[in-house]
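Supplementary Methods. Inverse-folding protocol.

Structures were first reduced to a discrete structure-token string of length 326. This string, shown here, constituted the complete conditioning input.
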């Protein structure tokens, strides 16, 4: 892979629409952005794979929304991997990159030799949208799937948003001869154009987790099934290999569906932490509270779980009594 190709293909999300099927989608590739996320921590391989999958999901889902600020995807689990949090920040200006960060919390002594998804136990998949100051945050949850995190995301959209959604993802360590081994991820997201189904509106059924086809009527279901059969033919090299541009992958898969592509969105690794934010988070505590947080060296310290940044502050300068004591 040449450097020029790497710049053009990697760390981008390309929106598309299938005009013959009334289906929209996204195709994404993450390389440098994913490396930026994973190099902050020495995760075991199973945890790395789960973080890679969540980062890819956040990039695909985040680009579908007109975000003013932040989308967070979160997994809360009773398994060895207790939590995965992924933040996607919309571009700060037209044409600018989106930013993504992620981290996982896990019990290393409980990890097994099983597949990555086996490290996730009973729990839930959460979607949180923060549109910024003055806007009411949104949160929705769905049960975790035992198949994959992408299946959990599909269940969330079917159950909470009444949007038939499909993800086909690939991620793993690239071993090309001209580059050091590193994690790479690519995937496709399909979504039927928004339309609440009669099934969802009537609230009928027995309370089972909804499937995408539950939301579609006959003609729509036929279109959805046909496009999903086409997506089933994609292979890992098409999603994460160096040979095909995302637009070429779409033509190979969906040429009869008349794919139309739009402007791609660049995605960078980026963290929003700062000393000012740390001080703001500590501003609710009294001097007595701050004293309990002070180290033996007489400092208040904090580490960012996303990027590993370390903050070291004088205790008299933090807390709501800081100005009085300073």
């Amino acid at each position: 892979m040449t450097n020029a190709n790497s710049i053009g293909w990697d760390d981008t999300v390309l929106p598309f629409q299938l005009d013959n099927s009334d289906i929209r989608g996204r195709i994404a590739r993450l390389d440098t952005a994913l490396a930026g996320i994973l190099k902050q921590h020495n995760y075991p391989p199973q945890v790395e794979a789960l973080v890679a999958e969540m980062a890819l999901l956040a990039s695909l889902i985040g680009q579908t929304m007109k975000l003013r600020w932040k989308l967070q995807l979160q997994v809360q689990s009773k398994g060895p991997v207790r939590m995965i949090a992924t933040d996607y920040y919309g571009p700060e200006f037209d044409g600018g990159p989106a930013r993504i960060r992620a981290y996982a919390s896990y019990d290393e002594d409980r990890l097994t030799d099983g597949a990555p998804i086996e490290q996730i136990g009973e729990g839930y998949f959460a979607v949180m949208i923060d549109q910024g100051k003055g806007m009411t945050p949104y949160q929705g949850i769905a049960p975790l799937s035992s198949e994959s995190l992408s299946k959990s995301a599909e269940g969330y959209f079917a159950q909470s948003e009444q949007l038939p959604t499909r993800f086909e993802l690939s991620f793993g360590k690239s071993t090309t001869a001209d580059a050091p081994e590193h994690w790479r991820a690519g995937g496709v997201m399909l979504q039927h154009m928004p339309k609440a189904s009669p099934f969802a509106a009537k609230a009928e059924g027995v309370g089972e987790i909804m499937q995408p086809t539950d939301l579609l009527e006959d003609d729509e279901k036929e279109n959805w099934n046909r496009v999903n059969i086409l997506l089933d033919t994609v292979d890992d090299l098409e999603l994460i290999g160096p040979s095909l541009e995302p637009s070429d992958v779409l033509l190979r898969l969906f040429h009869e569906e008349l794919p139309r592509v739009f402007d791609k969105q660049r995605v960078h690794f980026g963290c929003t932490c700062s000393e000012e934010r740390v001080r703001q988070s500590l501003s609710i505590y009294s001097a007595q509270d701050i004293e309990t947080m002070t180290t033996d060296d007489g400092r208040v310290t904090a580490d960012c779980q996303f990027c590993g940044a370390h903050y070291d502050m004088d205790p008299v300068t933090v807390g709501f009594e800081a100005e009085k004591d300073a």
